[in-house]
Amino acid sequence: MDAPRPAQDPEFLVNKTRVRLLGLSFDDAVKIFFGGNALISVVVLTLITYFLFQEGFGFFGQNHRSLLTYRQAGLEYVDYIRQQETGHTALNRYLADLRLREFNEFVSVQKLDIETANARLAPFDDFAGHFADSVDPLRGIISDLTEQATAIKTKFLVAEDKKVEREQLLAVGKTDEAAAVKIDIIDFPAELKALTDTLPLYRTASAEFAVKLMAALDKAPQMPTPELAARLDRLRQLTKDYIATFPATQRLLETWDYTRPIPWYQSGLSFITGKQWLTASFWQDFYGIVPLFMGSFMVSLVALALAVPFGVGAAIYVNQMASAREQRMIKPCIEFIAAFPSVVLGFFGIAVLGETLRLLSQQEWLAWVPGFPFSERLNILTAGCLLALIAVPTIFTLAEDALQNVPKAFKEASFALGATRLQTIVRIIVPASLSGIISAVLLGLGRVIGETMVVLLCAGNRIAIPDFTAGLAVITQPVHTMTGIIAQEMGEVVQGSIHYRALFVVGLVLFFLSLTINFLAQKIVRKYRISIG
Q1: Rounded distance, CA 412 to CA 414, Å?
Q2: How do residues 506-518 score in pLDDT, each as one tens digit?
Q3: 377 three-state secondary structure
Q4: Does some domain include residue 283?
Q5: Is 179 exposed, middle or buried (0-12, 13-18, 19+ CB in 10 A)?
Q6: Are residues 498 and 350 in the same domain?
Q7: What does the alpha-carbon distance between residue 436 and residue 187 come to, in Å, rounded to a whole number?
Q8: Contact residues for 415 (Cβ-Cβ < 8 A; gap 6+)
Q9: Both 454 and 516 in a single domain?
Q10: What is the pTM of this model?
């Protein structure tokens, strides 16, 4: 018996009837079903963007008020002098490093015992003591001014809290209780006069400080080697440059005005260019993203420096040189790395990799490596190595796909012209797939920047801009990252506080940074496909 024609098939007639009732074809229904994924993605992206903006943009108004309080309470005035003390502290760190180098010269090179070495360092210690104590006159002024400025700030904040309390009572109709709330009026000119009247005392203390610094330098002992003598001369020059900044500090104090307005853009500029991320401070909270951004940048740079050669190199080998058996073994192994939970890799970094790298840096035959030896096992290098491991599968998979999409005619034509396999790979295959490889690297970068647990556990979590004067040794320094600070502090902040909103602004920066990287990668992919097509 012949099979029924499609038009007579009962199931076909039922489906056709349903499609007619909906006014859609079957193909249209399939397109709507699967195309809905794109719509859902757009909706989710829109909601995330709206949420981040809603929570994050409140930071700028709060930060502006915080900066205004910082100026009106006189904290800014005191910090001008405090920066002078901070410069002296930096010189003391240089001096401590110089002592350590001289100690190592006596112990490691001249083979003196520790007791004899310390005895030889007695003149240096006496010099260092005078150098450190020279700041005492200035430090006493800072201590007194700090107490006064803190008291002014406390009075101001209490008055602001009372205003909020009164507004809340009025909002619920408790007029009598609101009237009973006493709000102290802060007389800023009178309160700040105690600070500004110390200017003559500061001039005297600053001049005395400069004299004591130069007198301490005159007592500097002779260094045992030309290298250490050059470092001591460098300290002398740094000290002279430091003393030359004293008049500028004095002019800032003389022209300081608590009534000077703070521009609206300063709240955002201080976040973008700020070099401090300081929270829960009795003095003043500062929210600057520079140290966090530089930490993320350095960790990502180390990760890409390791992941790109391994990921791209493995892709080239597997696609162009490996046998079928090697491909079946290598590809799953590399792609399986992506299945490791990042928190497990973080624990591995703490327990194994960090300590291994630290012990390796102590080996004498590796003393030529910049930054070796180092004592901090959790640093840029440790986190970068683990992030490289995470990025390799992404870079390998996408780069291998790009190589696979190069037309075989390119390779065959190269071989026909007498080129070797290596020449064909280097001059034909890789250039033809370069756009795809670059997009793979960018997507790997996006994967690295968004990683949280590894950097939180293994980067060291020191909120400071890396010391780039150390050269390549900078990678052995601990840092904090944008993702790490959000994960570490979000659970401890008060909802709606300036700290809470500052973390959302960091999230905004990360969000747009990731979007930019992925956008560039997609643009390169489209260009690559068009060029191949």
Answers
A1: 5
A2: 999 998 898 888 8
A3: coil
A4: no
A5: exposed
A6: yes
A7: 66
A8: 424
A9: yes
A10: 0.85
